[in-house]
Amino acid sequence: MDVYDLSHLIETGMPFFPGDPEPRVIPGRGAPPWQVSALELGTHTGTHIDAPSHRFPEGRAIADFPPVHFVRPGLVIPVAGLAEDEPVEPERLEPFLSRVRAGDAVVFATGWERYWGQPRYFRHPYLSEAVAGLLVEAGVAIVGIDALNVDSTVQGTSGVHERLLSAEVLIVENLRGLDQLVPGRRYVFSFLPLPVRGGDGSPVRAVAWESDGGSP
């Protein structure tokens, strides 16, 4: 079985959202001969998942969801060709809506991962609030994107987070490797987080594998 890795490496010097804790991997200095390194991370470091409590203090934290919630069938929506800070509008989603099922993970492939580590990565495309509304109406469980943010980082918006998280649709950001997946084909996605008590999110090791038959 082919398992596709959709996560960025966690390392010192990696990109992080402005204002978040700076990630550091500190080499181990355990008692010889053992190596025990230290990690300094935010809950939204690298490829990560947002819980409702990321935006709403009364919302559920990441450890409040059972592990099965993070393993979902779903599909990739291709939205390449967008300009800097350009929204994904409903017409890019609508051709695939008939294949989206309640409980799915829906992942948007902007191609912006190619700018990882460059200043342009922070001027990424983002989802429109209209698209977020369609996804909530479709009953999806998780929405992902291969960019820093489902909202506009340039404009500092938060409406997409608010629309999704208020409906308990979890958000995965900073995906990579979506070009390994066939647009519109059904896969199983795993976005398992660390079980952080009270956590508003967590880094994940995002992977996907082909669903039975892979057909819509």
Automatic annotation (TrEMBL):
Q: Which Pfam families match?
A: Cyclase
Molecular function terms in GO for this entry?
Answer: arylformamidase activity
- Highest taxon of the source? Bacteria
GO annotations under biological process? L-tryptophan catabolic process to kynurenine
Q: Which InterPro entries match?
A: KFase/CYL, KFase_sf
Q: What is this protein called?
A: Cyclase family protein
- Organism placement in taxonomy: Bacteria, Pseudomonadati, Thermomicrobiota, Thermomicrobia, Thermomicrobia incertae sedis
Species annotation: Thermorudis sp
